[in-house]
Request: fold
Amino acid sequence: MKKKKVNIPVKNEGILAVPEGKSVDSMPMSHFESLVNSKGWASVSRALTNLHTWNKNDNPGLSKWADNMQDKLAAWVESKRKK
Reply:
């Protein structure tokens, strides 16, 4: 039995603000820190969670990267709150 591919329309496709010609996993952590400062932790966290979830099967490396970046950013956000 062949699985049917589902095309899910993307909302907020620019939330992670990846410049054209670059890949999201090549962006430095400072890029995502700036995004958290400008767009808020909830939006960036949701975008990384979606990236992790949507790529679990098709691109496990990207999925793991998104999960790790979210963990690093969560620690960064928490350290900012304690100051």
About this structure: Helices lie at 29-39, 41-54, 60-82.
